[in-house]
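User: Please predict the structure of the protein below. I'd like the answer in structure-token form so I can feed it into my own downstream comparison script.

Assistant: Understood. Taking the following sequence of 119 residues as input:
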Amino acid sequence: QVQLVESGGGLVQPGGSLRLSCAASGTFFSIGLMHWYRQAPGNQRELTASVSGGGSTSYVDSVKGRFTISRDSAKNTVYLQMNTLKPEDTAVYYCNADVYTSGGLKNYWGKGTLVTVSS
């Protein structure tokens, strides 16, 4: 069984920064693509940022230049550095990963961490 556990959410003022972390644990061979999604109240879940095993990254247009996704493969952890936060960034942020297990490639979700941007 594989678990993804997010941390680092909280309340921050507009213009501030937060760093989210997501650590994978359990029994598996390796991790492929890792993603951060977010879901604001009343909205659908949105793919926010992705990072490949080789370090290639992609972002939704609304966070380009402000958010940076990175990973530490030795720690099986993905990060999301969020700068210049705006009220519209308020959402529950979810970690998602493609994990190579003895049962093949499987996709896992974390339970989410709440980010609130407000003065």
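That's the full token string. Residues 30 and 100 are 5 Å apart (CA to CA).
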